[in-house]
Specification:
This protein is of the alpha+beta class. The protein has 3 domains: about 150 residues, Beta-Lactamase; about 90 residues, Helix Hairpins (Orthogonal Bundle), CATH 1.10.287; about 140 residues, 2-Layer Sandwich (Heat Shock Protein 90), CATH 3.30.565. Helix content is about 55%, strand content about 15%. It has a 5-stranded mixed sheet. Strands 1-4-3-2 form a 4-stranded antiparallel sheet, sandwiched between helices. Strands 5-7 form a two-stranded antiparallel ribbon. Strand 10 and strand 11 form a beta hairpin. Helix 2 runs antiparallel to helix 6 and helix 7 packs antiparallel against helix 8. The longest helix has about 55 residues.
Length: about 475
C-alpha cells in the first residue's frame, strides 16, 4: 500500500510542495531570528549608550577624579544588572586599541561598539566573574583617556538560543504537517482512483449499470465523473438499443424470410407446362419480389436511422424556408389525400426560417404525413401547420382525424420496430417514428404527441430557429380544430 501510495503523482507533487513550503518557511523563520537578534543587540547598545551618557554627564559637570570615583562605586555596587566599567589612561591606549580592532571597524578615536569575551577585558576590570560574551562601548575622552562600558550578554544569548530552538521546532512541525498533508492528499486521490478502477473493471466484466461514484463537493473529480457517467449512460443506451434492434430485427424479419423461402421452394417444385401454372409462378414471383423489397426497405430504414444518430457534423445545414417547404409538400400530399377522399390543409406563418438539414426535415415530415394518410379513414382530415409559438420556438405540426395512439404508448412508439396491436396487420416495419425521433434529436428539438379527439397531433418544436424577422406570435391551435 505504501509503495502504491509513493508511486502516485499526487503524493509526489505533495511531497515537492511540502519541501518547498518547508524551505520557504525556514527562510522566513531564519529572517525572523536575524531580525530578533538585531533588535536585541540594538536594545543592548541603547542601554550602553544611556549608561555612557550618564557617566559622561558626570565627567563634563565635574572633573576626571569625580568620574573615576563614580566608576569605582558602580563597579563595587551589587546589582542584578551586570555592567563593566573601565577608564584607561594614555599609557593604556594601545591595549584599548587592540580591543577595538577585534571588530571590523577600527577605533579611530571615536565611540565604538564591540562584542568581546569577558576574559579579554579582565585585566582592566579585575573581576573574577565567569567568562562570557560582553558587549562594550568605548568612548574617547580628552587628554587621551578612554571610557569603556560593557554589559552582560548571557541573558540575551539565552533568549536568542530559546528563540532559535522554538524556530527549529516550528520548522520541524511545518515539515511534518506538510508531509502528513501530502500523504493524506495522495491517499485521498488514490482512494478515488481505486473506486474508479473498481467501477471500470465491473463495467468491463459486463455490468453496464455501474457508474462512477460522486461526492457532494463539485471538484474536478466530480466533474470528470459526471462526464464519464453521461458517456456511460449514452453507451448503455446505444448498446441496449442495438440489442433491442437485433432482437426486433430477428423477430420481424423471420416471417418475411420464411415466406420468401416457402415461395421459392414452391416455385422450384411447381410444374410450368400449363398456362395456369405460369400465372401462378408469376404471382409467386411478384410476392417474392414484394417480400424482398420489404426487406430492403427495412434495412435501408435501419441504415438511415443509424446514419442520422451518428451524424455530428452540420455541413449540410442551411437556412430553410419552412413556409415554402410546407407549401411544396402540401401540393404533393394533397393529391395523395384526395385519392383517399381525405381533406388536406396547409397553414403557415410567413417568413418562417429554420437553420437545419432541409432533406432530413422534409423526410421527417414525409414520414408523419405518410402515417397520417395511412391511418386516417375516408372523409377524414389532415392538417399540416407551421407557426411561431414564441420568439424562441418554431412549431411544425401534423394533425389527423385517424385512429390515433393511446397516451400510454406515446413514448413506446418511438422505439424501433414498435407496432401497436391496432395496426399490426397493416404494411410497415415500425421504423417511421423512430426515424422522426432521430432527426428531431439531431436538431436538438422536441417532439410532442397529443390526442386530436379523434386522431393524433404530432408537434416538432425547434428552439434555435435564429429568425430575426419572425411574424407576431399566433395563438396555439386547439387540439380539436379539424
Amino acid at each position: 500500500m505504501i509503495q502504491k501510495l509513493l508511486s502516485t503523482t499526487a503524493f509526489r507533487l505533495s511531497l515537492i510542495y511540502a519541501l518547498l513550503f518547508s524551505m520557504v518557511a525556514a527562510l522566513a523563520l531564519g529572517a525572523a531570528y536575524w531580525m530578533a537578534a538585531k533588535l536585541v543587540q540594538q536594545q543592548i547598545d541603547e542601554r550602553l549608550q544611556l549608561e555612557t551618557n550618564v557617566l559622561l554627564s558626570q565627567y563634563y559637570s565635574g572633573n576626571f577624579a569625580d568620574l573615576s570615583r563614580l566608576i569605582s562605586r558602580r563597579t563595587d555596587k551589587q546589582s542584578t544588572q551586570f555592567f563593566v566599567y573601565a577608564l584607561s589612561s594614555p599609557q593604556q591606549h594601545d591595549f584599548f586599541r587592540d580591543i577595538a580592532t577585534q571588530e571590523t571597524n577600527p577605533l579611530n578615536y571615536s565611540a565604538t561598539f564591540a562584542t568581546l569575551p569577558l576574559s579579554v577585558i579582565t585585566r582592566t576590570t579585575a573581576t573574577g566573574r565567569k567568562d562570557f560574551d560582553t558587549r562594550v562601548l568605548i568612548t574617547p575622552l580628552p587628554s587621551g583617556y578612554q571610557l569603556l562600558v560593557g554589559t552582560d550578554m548571557s541573558e540575551a544569548e539565552q533568549l536568542l538560543e530559546h528563540i532559535a530552538s522554538v524556530l527549529l521546532i516550528a520548522i520541524g512541525v511545518i515539515l511534518a504537517a506538510a508531509l502528513l498533508g501530502g500523504w493524506r492528499m495522495g491517499q485521498s486521490v488514490l482512494d478515488r482512483v481505486d473506486r474508479v478502477h473498481h467501477t471500470a473493471k465491473e463495467i468491463i466484466e459486463g455490468d453496464l449499470n455501474q457508474r462512477l461514484p460522486l461526492k457532494g463537493r463539485e471538484d474536478e473529480f466530480n466533474r470528470l465523473s459526471k462526464v464519464v457517467n453521461e458517456m456511460l449512460d449514452r453507451l448503455q443506451t446505444v448498446m441496449v438499443s442495438m440489442r433491442d434492434v437485433t432482437d426486433n430485427l430477428a423477430h420481424d424479419l423471420r416471417n418475411p424470410l420464411n415466406r420468401l423461402h416457402h415461395r421459392l421452394e414452391a416455385l422450384r417444385l411447381m410444374p410450368s407446362a400449363s398456362e395456369a401454372g405460369k400465372e401462378t409462378q408469376e404471382t409467386e414471383l411478384d410476392n417474392a419480389i414484394a417480400d424482398v423489397n420489404s426487406l430492403i426497405a427495412t434495412f435501408n430504414a435501419i441504415l438511415n436511422i443509424t446514419q442520422i444518430e451518428s451524424r455530428v457534423q452540420h455541413d449540410r445545414w442551411e437556412e430553410v424556408d419552412v413556409s415554402s417547404m410546407l407549401e411544396d409538400m402540401g401540393e404533393v400530399y394533397a393529391v395523395v389525400a384526395e385519392e383517399k377522399n381525405i381533406a388536406f390543409q396547409v397553414y403557415s406563418d410567413r417568413n418562417l426560417r429554420l437553420r437545419a438539414d432541409k432533406q432530413l426535415i422534409a423526410q421527417a415530415l414525409a414520414n408523419l404525413l405518410d402515417n397520417a394518410i395511412k391511418y386516417t379513414p375516408a372523409h377524414g382530415k389532415i392538417r399540416l401547420q407551421a407557426h411561431r409559438r414564441s420568439t424562441a420556438e418554431l412549431v411544425i405540426s401534423v394533425c389527423d382525424s385517424g385512429i390515433g395512439i393511446p397516451e400510454a404508448d406515446y413514448q413506446r412508439v418511438f422505439e424501433r420496430f414498435t407496432r401497436l396491436d391496432a395496426v399490426r396487420n397493416t404494411p410497415g416495419n415500425g421504423l417511421g417514428l423512430s426515424m422522426v425521433k432521430a432527426i428531431v434529436n439531431l436538431h436538438k428539438a422536441d417532439i410532442e404527441l397529443s390526442d386530436n379527439k379523434p386522431g393524433l397531433c404530432v408537434r416538432l418544436i425547434f428552439t434555435d430557429s435564429g429568425n430575426e424577422n419572425a411574424a407576431e406570435t399566433p395563438s396555439e391551435p386547439q387540439a380539436g380544430y379539424l
